[in-house]
Write the structure tokens for this entry.
Amino acid sequence: MLRPGVLGAPVGCPVRWNRSARARRVSLRIDARAGEVVVTLPMRAGRRAGMALLTTHAAWVMQRLAALSPPVELAPGVEVPLGGLPHVIRHDPDARGGAFLDGQSIVVSGRAEFLARRVKDFLRAEAKRRIALLAEGHAATLGVKIRAIRLKDTNSRWGSCAPDGTLAFSWRLVMAPDWVLDYVVAHEVAHLRELNHSSRFWAHVAALTPHREPAQDWLRENGPALLRVG
């Protein structure tokens, strides 16, 4: 936690300091999942430079932190979104199957101490299933091949495409509306044709999905809340 000082940086603002050999300048970003500001320093920069940047952007930092959604604990009775729709976590110790859907509920079997992990495992598995279906369909449309699909839990990127044809996605996208997930998957599949953001690339995206602009807007507004789940 930052303490008050002559630089006037935000009092009580949680700060994580990173030092990076690749950084060319002091920078800061908000880690929505952890609920803190991250200051990255080049190897030769001191914390005073970071404090100065925090002071300059103090209002922005506090505004962004205040706007973060409360963290959502994966516990019985809590609602988590799936495909953009709220689903209640229901604990049934005597049920079988780990975690599964029952209408608008995510039913979790077994002991209570394993519930959060089983809900997260269920969400990851559901994300992999839904993403694979969308990706295979979009790849067939473009006539491209996917080498592999990986799931990650990143803070800043919803998806990525490696030069070898491997696609990676945040599992948290399964909580977004289906049309948002469709856009992100289409975006990465289009990179299998054009590994850039040229006009040709965006033409491929448009051929795969009509959801580009509303999905981008939704992620900007609601994406940080997905990082606060679990």
Summary: The radius of gyration is 20 Å. Confidence is low (pLDDT under 50) at residues 1-9. The longest strand covers residues 36-42.
